[in-house]
Amino acid sequence: MECVVQGIIETQHVEALEVLLQGLSGVPKERVRVHELCLKSGPNLGVVPSEVRLLCDLAQPTPSWTIRHVGGAMRGAGAEQISVLVRTIVESKASKNVLHYFYTLGYKLDHELLKIGFAFRFHRGAQITVTVTSTNKMPRLHATDEAVPVTPGIQLVEITAPAAADNYNDVVSAVSAFCEYLAPLLHLSKPEHSTGIVATAGAAAASLMSSGGGKTL
Amino acid sequence: MTPVKWLMHWHPSPGATVNSQILSEACGCAESLGGSKDGRWKTSIFFYRAMTRDGAGGPAGQQHPDLPRELLGVALHERPGLYFSIVRAQRLVLQADAAFPQVMEKLQSYRIRVALNFEGFQYQLGDFCLRIGKCVPNNSEALRGIMMEVEYYPLSSIEKSKAVMEDFFDIWQETVAKKSLPGQFIHVDSSFSDYGLSDQYSFQHTAVQYATCLQQLMAAVTVRG
Question: What are the protein's UniProt keywords (chain A) (predicted)?
Answer without folding.
Answer: Activator, Nucleus, Transcription, Transcription regulation
